[in-house]
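Model it.
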Amino acid sequence: MRYAVHYRKYRWFVYRVRVGAALDLRTPISGITSYGHDEVEALDIAFRRAYQRYPCRPHEMFCVVRCTDRASKHQAFLMEQAKKRDDAAFMELLGVE
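Modeled.
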């Protein structure tokens, strides 16, 4: 008997917001791609990746917003790729392989 597991791809914008302040949707810090059975599972994965990848001050928190249209999904993908390239260049500068 074969079972197929279907994961959907979700793209998210990540925002850094001061606690108690309003969210400004014009200034995401990056994008994140996550896979999950449903949106809730993918959102949980996106939050965990945001807290692992980006620094956050004690008076700040992350806000993750799903990209729904094609242009915003592409922008989130490009921002994520730029972050990965910057991290790879930094590690090369340090001499870590």
